[in-house]
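Dear colleague,

Following up on Tuesday's group meeting, I ran the structure prediction for the three-component complex that the binding team flagged. I've pasted the input sequences exactly as they went in, so you can double-check that nothing got truncated or mislabelled along the way. The structure tokens for the whole assembly follow below. Feel free to forward this to whoever is handling the docking comparison.

Inputs:
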Amino acid sequence: MVTFKGQHILEVGQFDRDQLECVLSTADKMIPFAKRELKTRVLEGAILNNLFFEPSTRTRISFGSAFNLLGGQVRETTGLKSSSLAKGESIDDSAKVISGYSDIIVMRHPMSGSVSDFAKASRVPVINGGDGTNEHPSQALLDLYTMSKELKRFNRTLDNVKVAMVGDLANGRTVHSLSRLLALYKKIEFTFISPKELSMPINIIEFLIEKGHDVIETQSMEKGIKNVDIIYQTRIQEERFANQELANKFRGAYRINQFFYSQFCQPTTVIMHPLPRDSREEANELDVDLDKNPNLAIFRQADNGVLVRMALFALVLGVENQIEKDAKAVNWFVGKR
Amino acid sequence: MVTFKGQHILEVGQFDRDQLECVLSTADKMIPFAKRELKTRVLEGAILNNLFFEPSTRTRISFGSAFNLLGGQVRETTGLKSSSLAKGESIDDSAKVISGYSDIIVMRHPMSGSVSDFAKASRVPVINGGDGTNEHPSQALLDLYTMSKELKRFNRTLDNVKVAMVGDLANGRTVHSLSRLLALYKKIEFTFISPKELSMPINIIEFLIEKGHDVIETQSMEKGIKNVDIIYQTRIQEERFANQELANKFRGAYRINQFFYSQFCQPTTVIMHPLPRDSREEANELDVDLDKNPNLAIFRQADNGVLVRMALFALVLGVENQIEKDAKAVNWFVGKR
Amino acid sequence: MVTFKGQHILEVGQFDRDQLECVLSTADKMIPFAKRELKTRVLEGAILNNLFFEPSTRTRISFGSAFNLLGGQVRETTGLKSSSLAKGESIDDSAKVISGYSDIIVMRHPMSGSVSDFAKASRVPVINGGDGTNEHPSQALLDLYTMSKELKRFNRTLDNVKVAMVGDLANGRTVHSLSRLLALYKKIEFTFISPKELSMPINIIEFLIEKGHDVIETQSMEKGIKNVDIIYQTRIQEERFANQELANKFRGAYRINQFFYSQFCQPTTVIMHPLPRDSREEANELDVDLDKNPNLAIFRQADNGVLVRMALFALVLGVENQIEKDAKAVNWFVGKR
């Protein structure tokens, strides 16, 4: 039987297909709690230390709210300057000390590999909330979960799906991780759409082909998205670029609006995006006129983040089978979910 | 019957007199909980996202503590730089995403109108915690509640009350909002005391007169406060001024100390202030020698903030009639309240 | 009977020996809760306001987690700039207002004496979390608790113990406070090891001698640590120095590594350190090769901080005898503690 009890969640490479299915089905169990139909106190008394040494408002809140929804308490640290790491303390020491204050830790840090180093010395499970350009596994898992759910609307599964990934594929942590997860499914058709300068790293392409999947690379948006089931759009992560000029050059180059969608996409093509999307004039990756398109899944995707993070907490702390035990009806006003 | 269930609290203009009375009487119900005689878990499992994109320590803590006192959990965000809004995300997108992590949201933001925009896209109720120079309704409500409570000590009600508002009436968000709320009561006498450069905006004066109230404007502190029931003193909001010179000019120009009070005020005149008061040498708006004056209501006013915010949370989430249900006696040491 | 109910915890000088024993034995009672064998809800509904006007990640988290472990809620403020104190509000006013939002307050502030001033005006108990170079009593208490526990492994008590304190003894708040606490025990032998420029203040040395203890001062590490039971190593608090040059001069001058330990220390000598230790190349105070030495107590010491802070909260809020009442077994995965 699949178990995650006591394990760190550090990188997508640690998951096999059975484990993925377990995360996805556990996330499904969280729906009534995240929709505020039911509430649970299963983690009453447990403490999450949410360490965000690099800012990321939505990821931080999403993890914190997920833990609260399970009944646990959240202690939070934001910013790097004020931390002991800045006084010359090793990551090892930090981990030994902070893990003594926690039942579980989520850590985000600008330096690649720092979260794994931290996890090695920690006495409690650590979830990687993003370590520089390296990994952000909960994002990849929520993306995968969203794909699975969106396809279910059309009676499809992840096997044999056609996915286009668009934008800065060279620097995009999310598209790399998501590709590796999808590779565990059967016969995926990947279409990678980007300017040459920002194309998908060759090692990932080789990995996908070796696993038996199809890979198409193109610079043309129109051609690339024509037959796909899902478009995974990414923003130009300007902070990853060497200079502003380069960032500006590709800003909005691959934008999608409703007119474009009607003209070139399948009527059931799902649009995803890891968010935030840049909505400044001329900078849109996804125009707001898509917001009424029922296949724009970006906000469902953000909501799914809570489900997947609840699932990870429940699995790692080994309470996935206790959730429903003392569930109660929510007793306050709940709007549309 | 009055209900606030599922409503946003965005501006004082949304309240009629019945609704005000409902807020005030619900705040009264919160007294044993805020005084730590009783505790309640009525919002156990509910999540407040306390979004302070502009710093305001006391308002932030007051909202957070109020939610905790009802048994709920608080997730918090402070600062603007680290937020997704800084990456070009629209307020609309932020609201759609963050409302998926929340049962209710309090938002403070430096830009006028931003909280209403956010509320439009939010799937959960939003309380305006202050949007620039525009509105800060919970402050106005706690001011009104304080007036009502202080007058009750003298067997008075808000009807027919004489109120002096002092200081920077041109830029003071609190005095504008409070005036509009008081206008819903009967025959108020407003005395506005300020230098000409900082006088109450004409549209508010016209509004009050139109509603049948009396308005007196004066630059003289001695004359203005002579017969009033309540003095509402405000600090020079230096950050609102164009230059430091102007700020300095009016600093302390309308200060009150105990000697002044004894000489010119009625013996029952109540003194209020939205706080913080500037206690630096020569800058006092209210001298500390007033602290022993039983009619200095400023700290009761701050305490009332918790009551009013508890009331707003309870009303908006529709649990105002469940509060006492499972109330228990507080089991730890409680000092003087 | 010893009671702390409703008292502030401001400085080590407030404790007599009976009170110390009470803190230490209450800390012992917290072990099953901190080790996550049991959980308690004894402070369910209580609110800690954790005010860190000076950054200190580990102390902040340690206090917050300790309060959560007792079932209470934590509101948190970090940084000085955003606080009302920066707008000219007096400490007195801040205390009156914030204590209305709290059941207990922990405050850290860069200015000596500020926490006592705050406590005077507060309506709820205040624990000093460090006020500049002045006091940090919970650190001294956890240090004392750690010494007591480590000595117990060798069937020893604090009476007659030989302690070496090493490093910046002139500016080190922790060594001053710890010395004063140890002075309440019988016949302690203090060895103070430091460069002349950073030697222990004469008033503390005189105080210890007056209380009947032995004091040895030396600049030689080898001689000083030869016969001691406990070495209390401190880091060079660079931020306390007038200039970087002076800081650099003494950096690493008194470092200990395993080779040094084997050569010069007793086989049972315990090594302590308030942490964080500087682990940068050439800057170590305690080399990482000591991490496998069973007498390196630094991480147990950090863990003990949670126990002692839980004890302080329980004692000050008068719930120390209610803790076990409704204790339950922890129902989630717990790793090695």
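Chain C has a mean pLDDT of 93.

Cheers,
M.
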